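Sample entry (508 residues):
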Amino acid sequence: MESAGALLLADVGRWRSHLLARAFGLTLLTLQWKHVASLWGEPRYATLSDKALLAVAVVLLALGSRVVALLAAAPVALVVMLERVFWPARDGSQVADEYLLYAVAPGFALLAAALAAHETSTLGRATLAARLGGREVDHAVVNVSRLLIVVTMAFAGLHKLNVDFLHEGTSCHRMLTRRLLQWWTLPSALLDPLQPEHIVAGELGAALALRFAPRLGVLLVGALVLGFVHVGPVAFGVACLSLSLSFLRDEDGDRAWRVARRAWPLAVVASAIVLAGSARLHRAPLPWNRFVIYEVLLVATVLLVLGLVVGDLLSARARLARGAGRRAALLAALGLPSPGRRAPRLGPLSRALALGIGAFLVAQGLAPYTGLKLRLSFAMLSNLRADDTRHNHLFMPRAPLVGARSPFLEITRASFSADEDAALARESGVTLPPRGLVAAWVVDGSLAEARATGVRFDLDVRDADDSTRTIADAARDRAFVAQVGRLSTWSRLFQKTISGARPQYCVH
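Predicted structure, serialized as tokens:
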């Protein structure tokens, strides 16, 4: 009979599961880096959610994929991410496209492990702890991470196949390029050859490469998120690069350990050179130390993968010398298992779960085309529009609108009610809602600030029937406040503002 303590400290999966769990802890640590960095600088206020997420990150880094670590991470990640999306601080404007990965990864991994352990109960392993640490459980956990990264890359590329992303004048790619040049001392000639279609091809290609040439796929993911990371979302870059490591094979473990033992001095030197160069080029408004984790992880990953590639090529040459055949040599050179070494087969429950997780993720990716939501659908920096006013995708059809009401309010005029209100607004930092099609939650924030400070402003709002109404002292108009409040929570799953029937500029 197993004790509860022994079971809680039992391993879930093997070395890959531990690597992925610790990498997820590193992702959460990066997400909370502002609080970690404040230990050496000006203290920052940390909420209970911030502390819980930071605690989970430390537990995962320390324990890896132990039962207790995953049991702690799964609910905390889900609840905190939902809180950040739907109940952020009043000034929060996080678009949250990447939060879906953080919310579901540990929970899906824990569920996959539990089902796989249940299905291996007939294999003669006496204890649950022994079953949890088996190859079958490891394969189930790794399979979840593979689904997450492939679906993320595939939909990131698919969503960008729209006329506004591919157009130079509106593309988020150009916004990203401009910000990189503002935040880092880089020659513009370095980025000029890169076109929007190259980004699309890279993201779609990464999804395919991870499956058919996994070593190349890992390097491609690292290169693709390199620019994205250096304009802010470092945690997302760490998550993508970490999840791509799920395409390492179980039998890579010994070779990966040998590479790590032999290459660590080179990794230290290479990291020092990269960090020194990064610090010299840095001029971003964000502190330089925010980018350190990704840069060191990228150096370590590149050296690991290159070491594995060398081993793959040597193995392919050895197979050819033994007369094993060109197909076996090609599989070895690509880092793929030989025909005689297949991964453990998932049981029927585990296969059903994998199909369910895959269907859930695909449904999230397709949600923008149903009108259900745009955020949490892998549509980051995509210029995507799929609403009744504008549908800009090249080939995805527009499904019937799921939402009965638009989450946007069309504001044609916004002005302070009197000069005294404008002066009070300047003193208290209250801003008017922007004009145009504005998400209800943005308007709700302006209304709340006005009520709290005593500022009055008037709005002209165009309704669905194309009529326009004037709302005096909008923050205290009960009917209007109630209308905005009903739409506010749902509207957080959409852009802050959209451009109506005009080409969609980049909103992120």
